[in-house]
Specification:
- The complex is a heterodimer of chains A (110) and B (114).
- By secondary structure, chain A is mainly beta.
- Helices cover 0% and strands 56% of the residues of chain A.
- In chain A, the strands form two sheets. In chain A, strands 2, 4, 5, 9, 10 and 11 form a six-stranded mixed beta sheet that branches. Chain A has a five-stranded antiparallel beta sheet with strand order 1-3-8-7-6, with no helix packed on it.
- In chain A, strand 4 and strand 5 form a beta hairpin.
- By secondary structure, chain B is mainly β.
- Classes of the chains: A mainly beta (110), B mainly beta (114).
- Chains A and B meet through strand 5, strand 9 and strand 10 of A and strand 4, strand 5 and strand 10 of B.
Chain lengths: 110, 114
């Protein structure tokens, strides 16, 4: 079976940092993805990790620990436009489907 | 190429009616996926194709749902005898084999069954 857990909602202040955790239990592992989804819109790709460690991409960074079944997405210098849902997804086998967590809704306040 | 296109954007139908949605993937992408998403939840896998072959179908998908990708290009998803519980956003996505960028999603078709 598959289980991907992430917090339902987080609130942070503009300019601050927020860390969204994701834990997973899957029968296989071939990559972890983070997507951003604004209300009423399609998910858009943010980051991909397949090896342990930190991947940095501008204000966004993503970390993976395969032994712990754990990832986080770090959003720095928060802007109001970062208010959205953030989806963690795991690919169990190469070229296979993604399984998504329930998403974390981030609300950025002035 | 303008990305993944889905049609229609919105569909309101009466319970018991059949509906069909269309997805046009990015032209060079050989994999096409259908997901369903309800409010406040993550996308739930329905089925996927590699070229014209349907490789996997979710166990959660009842016999009322069927999908095709006849020439390995566009795909259709049909729901027969719709129920109120079918109300959701239906998302289509496409990718290259084992792409490290995951999927490119379309804007979705929002289905409301009344």
């Amino acid at each position: 079976g598959q289980n991907i857990d992430q917090p339902t909602e987080m609130t942070a202040t503009e300019g601050a940092i927020v860390q969204i955790n994701c834990t997973y239990q899957t029968s296989g592992f071939n990559g972890l993805f983070w997507y951003q989804q604004h209300a009423g819109e399609a998910p858009t790709f943010l980051s991909y990790n397949v090896l342990d460690g930190l991947e940095e991409k501008g204000r966004f960074s993503s970390f993976l620990s395969r032994s712990k079944g754990y990832s986080y997405l770090l959003l720095k210098e928060l802007q109001m436009k970062d208010s959205a849902s953030y989806l963690c997804a795991v690919r169990e086998a190469a070229g296979n489907k993604l399984t998504f967590g329930g998403g974390t809704r981030v609300l950025v306040k002035p | 190429d303008t990305g993944v296109s889905q049609d229609p954007r919105h569909k309101i139908t009466k319970r018991g009616q059949n509906v069909t949605f269309r997805c046009d993937p990015i032209s060079e992408h050989n994999r096409l996926y259908w997901y369903r998403q309800t409010l406040g939840q993550g996308p739930e896998f329905l089925t996927y194709f590699q070229n014209e072959a349907q490789l996997e179908k979710s166990r959660l998908l009842s016999d009322r749902f069927s999908a095709e990708r006849p020439k390995g290009s566009f795909s259709t998803l049909e729901i027969q005898r719709t129920e109120q519980g079918d109300s959701a956003m239906y998302l289509c996505a496409s990718s290259l084999d084992a792409g490290n960028y995951g999927y490119t999603f379309g804007s979705g078709t929002r289905l409301t069954v009344v």
